[in-house]
Each structure stands twice: as C-alpha cells, then as structure tokens.
C-alpha cells in the first residue's frame, strides 16, 4: 500500500528574468515586467510530496516534523527573503524561472528525503502566484 504525503511551506523571494548578453529592450520584449532592472518578488507556496509504505510500527510514512525540518534546512533557509539571482548557490548561472527553481528544489530535497528508509520524493510543486505554478516529478 503506497501513500502520498504532502507538506506545504512558503517563502518570499525576489528575482529578475534577463540575459546579460541581451539588450534591455530584448529582455523586456522577451520577459516583460519580469525583466525590471529593479527586480520584483513573489510570495511562493511550495508543496513537497513524498511517497512510500506506511510503517505499521509508527503509523507514519515519515514524521511530518522531520519532513518540515528537511524542507526548511535544505530549501527555505536558502530561499526565504533572498534574491534568487544573487543569493542562491544552487541557482547560480541559471535563469530564475519558476520552472527551473522547481527542478532545483527537487534536486536539493531528493537525497535528504530519501535517506529515510522507504521514503521517496514524488514531486515538488511551486506556486509563484495563485494562478501560476510548476510541478516536477524528477523526470
């Protein structure tokens, strides 16, 4: 019997969508307001879903306090109230899109989550706004 368990966390971060080698005009034409030279920010909602078999000894797949700690230590502390373009080492050299951020968060969480016996990272879903989100399944 496989169960899926999801933890929600939030963080606030600024970013700018632009390519250094492009002119400001081309960046604005491509990325619109997201290319603002003065940056912009979002209140992100992060959903981390793990899967596996329930332990009949504890009744848990994973203790939610432990899952919360893993997410906070490996992701939230690195992203919250940060500039994604300048402050986040795992995004260095990458465009700070929601899609790429979602993939990189998955990569940051996979090993610490899966170091718990029988627990597997199923997906990371990242809401940039209430209308826009990306989801990654490690594929």
Q: Give the biggest sheet.
A: 5 strands, mixed
Strand content: 25-35%
Oligomer: single chain
SS summary, helix count: 3
Please report the distance between the alpha carbons of the first and last residues.
Answer: 23 Å
Task: Estimate percent helicity.
Answer: 25-40%
What is the β-strand count? Answer: 5
User: What pattern of helices and strands is seen along the backbone?
Assistant: EHEHEHEE
What are the segments in which pLDDT stays under 50 over at least 5 consecutive residues? none
Dominant shape: elongated
- Average pLDDT, to the nearest integer? 96
Strands side by side in the biggest sheet: 3-1-2-4-5
Structural class: alpha+beta
Radius of gyration: 17 Å
Written overview of the protein:
The chain is an alpha+beta fold and about 140 residues long. About 30% of the residues lie in helices and about 30% in strands. It is built from three helices and five strands, in the order βαβαβαββ. α2 (about 65-80) packs across α3. It is elongated, with a radius of gyration of 17 Å.
What keywords describe this structure?
5 strands, 139 residues, alpha+beta, five-stranded mixed beta sheet
Summarize the structure.
Helices cover 29% and strands 31% of the residues. It contains 3 helices and 5 strands, in the order βαβαβαββ.
Strand and helix layout:
Elements: E1 2-15, H1 24-31, E2 40-53, H2 64-79, E3 82-83, H3 98-114, E4 119-127, E5 133-136
Parallel strand pairs: 1-3
Antiparallel strand pairs: 1-2, 2-4, 4-5
Helix pairs in contact: 2-3
């Amino acid at each position: 019997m496989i169960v899926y368990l999801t933890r929600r966390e939030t963080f606030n971060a600024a970013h700018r969508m632009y390519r250094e080698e492009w002119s400001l005009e081309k960046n604005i034409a491509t990325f619109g307001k997201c290319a603002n030279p003065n940056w912009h920010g979002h209140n992100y909602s992060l959903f981390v879903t793990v899967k596996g078999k329930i332990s009949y000894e504890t009744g848990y797949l994973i203790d939610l306090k432990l899952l919360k700690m893993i997410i906070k230590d490996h992701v939230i502390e690195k992203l919250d109230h940060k500039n994604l373009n300048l402050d986040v080492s795992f995004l260095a050299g990458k465009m700070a899109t929601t899609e790429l951020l979602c993939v990189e968060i998955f990569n940051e969480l996979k090993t610490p989550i899966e170091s718990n016996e029988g627990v597997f990272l199923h997906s990371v879903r990242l809401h940039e706004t209430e209308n826009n989100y990306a989801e990654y399944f490690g594929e």
